[in-house]
Amino acid sequence: MDLFDAVGTDDSGIPDGAGGPLAARMRPRTLDEVVGQDHLLAEGSPLRRLVEAQGGAPSSVFLWGPPGTGKTTFAYLIARAGGRHFEEVSAVSAGVKDLRAVISAARQRLAANGRETVLFIDEVHRFNRAQQDALLPAVENGWVTLVAATTENPSFSVVSPLLSRSLLVTLRGLTDGDIRTLVARALEDERGFGGSLAVDDDALDNLVRIAGRDGRRSLTLLEAAAEGAKSRGSSRIGLADVTQAADTAAVRYDRSGDQHYDVVSAFIKSIRGSDVDAAVHYLARMLEAGEDPRFVARRMMISAAEDVGMADPSALQTATAAAQAVALVGMPEARIILAEAVVHLATAPKSNRSYTAIDAALADVRAGKAGPVPEALRDSHYASAADLGHGAGYRYAHDYEAGVAPMEFMPEGLEGARYYEPTTRGFESQITQRLARIREILDGDT
Question: Residue 89 forms beta bridges with which residues?
Answer without folding.
Answer: 121
